[in-house]
Specification:
- A hairpin with a 3-residue loop joins strand 1 and strand 2.
- The termini are far apart.
- The chain contains five helices and five strands, in the order αααββαβαββ.
- It has one domain: Orthogonal Bundle (Hypothetical Oxidoreductase Yiak, Chain: A, domain 1).
- The chain has about 180 residues and is of the alpha+beta class.
- A five-stranded mixed sheet has the order 1-2-3-5-4, covered by helices on one side.
- The chain is globular.
Length: about 180
């Protein structure tokens, strides 16, 4: 069965907002889910909605979460996803990392306390569109564990972006 992509996007937004997610954050999550499926990564797109529903039903997913920056420097940011879906927090992290890379030459953003964030390739594709390079985020444990201080760093997802140095053949456009 073929369904128009706009209809699928609308249904995902409707579902997530019915579950209590902020409409703007639901649109971000739906965009990532849809683009993931369109890229051929079916395992990390629409098919994940059942897992999200399962996490929601068990009380493990905070659909009212709003990601926020909890620590920041000129080149780094730490974002708490508040146990929500990882898509909005990861989009936020990439936006911050790209902005910092344009301003300082490197930008690193880390997201913690999040659930599934979709296909890492979605986020990796955002940097080149801004003439930046990207080190893909790592997939780590979700917020269902209470890590010991030693393991705390392993429960974060990192996303870094940097501006390549100018060379005679390549001129960086990743500037502010």
């Amino acid at each position: 069965m073929n369904v128009p992509i706009e209809r699928v996007r609308e249904q995902i937004v409707t579902l997530l907002t019915a579950w209590g997610m902020d409409p703007q954050l639901a649109r971000i999550a739906a965009e990532v889910v849809i683009e993931t499926d369109l890229a051929g990564v079916d395992s990390h797109g629409v098919s994940m909605l059942m897992d999200y529903e399962n996490s929601k039903s068990r009380g493990k997913l905070n659909l009212r979460a709003v990601p926020r920056v909890v620590r920041e420097s000129a080149t780094t940011a730490l974002i708490d996803a508040d146990a929500g879906l990882g898509h909005p927090a990861a989009v936020m992290a990439m936006g911050i990392a790209i902005k910092k890379a344009k301003a300082m030459g490197v930008g690193v953003a880390s997201v913690f306390n999040s659930h599934h964030f979709g296909a890492a390739g979605y986020y990796a594709a955002r940097a080149p569109s801004q003439s930046c390079r990207h080190a893909p985020p790592c997939r780590c444990s979700g917020p269902t564990r209470s890590p010991s201080p030693r393991r705390r760093a392993a429960t974060r997802r990192f996303s870094s972006t940097w501006r390549p140095p100018p060379s005679p053949t390549t001129r960086s456009r990743c500037t502010s």
